[in-house]
Amino acid sequence: MEKLSLTPENYGTVRRYFIQTLDDHMLSPDAQEKLVRENPPDGIFKIKGGDHCPFFSKPQSLNKILLEIAQIQAPSALLPGKASAEETAAATEAVAAKS
């Protein structure tokens, strides 16, 4: 079996999205925001009323977000995972506006 090697070059080739669950009692919103700051995703989605297991607490909301993520196309000028904070915010707002 090949040993897994996480490098910035390899890890940065996969687009990442963060789904923040606002009523998570295991991982507080502050802890979730810290994770986002330390490893910025390509977009952030929030589920109001979602707990640590949104597939149980808010399955329709989670499904809608996953479908939206599946429809997002990377801007051709950007490498996956390399969007600026402004571009990430704009993309997230654009998707949120559709909901």
Automatic annotation (TrEMBL):
It comes from the Eukaryota. Gene3D superfamilies: alpha/beta hydrolase. InterPro entries: AB_hydrolase_fold, MES/HNL. GO terms for molecular function: methyl indole-3-acetate esterase activity; methyl jasmonate esterase activity; methyl salicylate esterase activity. One of its GO terms (biological process) is salicylic acid metabolic process. This is Uncharacterized protein.
